[in-house]
From TrEMBL:
This is Metalloendopeptidase. Its EC number is 3.4.24.-. InterPro entries: MetalloPept_cat_dom_sf, Peptidase_M12A, Peptidase_Metallo. Its cofactor is Zn(2+). It comes from Culex quinquefasciatus (Southern house mosquito).
Length: 233
């Protein structure tokens, strides 16, 4: 978990540079209701592009940040890390038994493949993630926030829980991960094809706000990880 520290300075950069990717959008929710995975090549968590940072990351709004652009309260960036890789959580949405099983299966994947543990919150856990299903798409905030208002994973149902991959993906953001496609070495491996975006998203502003490379050393914990898959060599 120490390795997460390397990600953290990036948080400050993003909050300082971008300012309007923090409002839950019912338009995203409406679009997601019309989403048909049999004809749409996108993942459900990609539908927020243009409204949510990188498509499905929620940033803390200005009133939650300090004047210098940082998020409020934390003096030490290590506060963004969940201690001991343990993430207390509560289920605060209205999920069906089947959807709850999908959430549990996602947590089980972390338990099976990583040191991360999602555990039901207790009275001794002041900070915990709430998992909800508002009709505003699939998204999460990044890392452990000092205000539980921002320790939130939204999984609109049924679309965000049609497969285990989406809850796993959003839980990764809650742990502190951004997307592989903003890795500083991504140009060595992939090309960003702007023409594949929806026409209204093919602007410099969208590109700069969502596809600009982050400035930190790539870190894959000794694993070979490819965007869109979890492949271990
Ligand atoms: Zn994502």
């Amino acid at each position: 978990m120490v390795a997460f520290v390397k990600f953290l300075p990036i948080l400050v950069q993003i909050y300082a540079v971008y300012g309007d990717y923090y409002t839950p959008s019912e338009e995203v929710g409406e679009e997601l209701k019309r989403y048909d995975p049999s004809t749409d090549s996108r993942y459900p968590f990609e539908l927020g592009l243009g409204r949510y940072y990188q498509g499905d990351i929620m940033l803390v709004p200005p009133e939650g940040r300090n004047k210098d652009g940082r998020v409020s309260v934390p003096d030490s960036l290590t506060s963004y890390i969940w201690p001991n890789g343990t993430v207390p959580y509560e289920i605060a949405g209205n999920f069906t038994p089947s959807e709850l099983r999908t959430i549990q299966n996602a947590m089980r994947m972390f338990r099976r493949y990583t040191c991360v543990r999602f555990i039901p919150k207790t009275a001794n856990d002041p900070l915990f993630v709430s998992i909800v299903n508002n009709n505003t798409g699939c998204y999460s905030y990044i890392g452990r926030q000092q205000n539980n208002m921002y320790n939130l994973i939204n999984l609109q149902t049924p679309q965000c829980l049609m497969a285990v991959g989406t809850p796993v993906h959003e839980m990764m953001h809650a742990l502190g991960f951004y997307h592989e496609f903003v890795r500083p070495d991504r140009d060595d491996w992939i090309t960003i094809n702007r023409s594949a975006l929806l026409p209204e998203l093919q602007t410099d502003e969208i590109y700069d706000n969502n596809f600009r490379k982050l400035r930190f050393e790539p870190m894959t914990f000794g694993l070979r990880i490819e965007y869109g898959s979890f492949q271990v060599n």
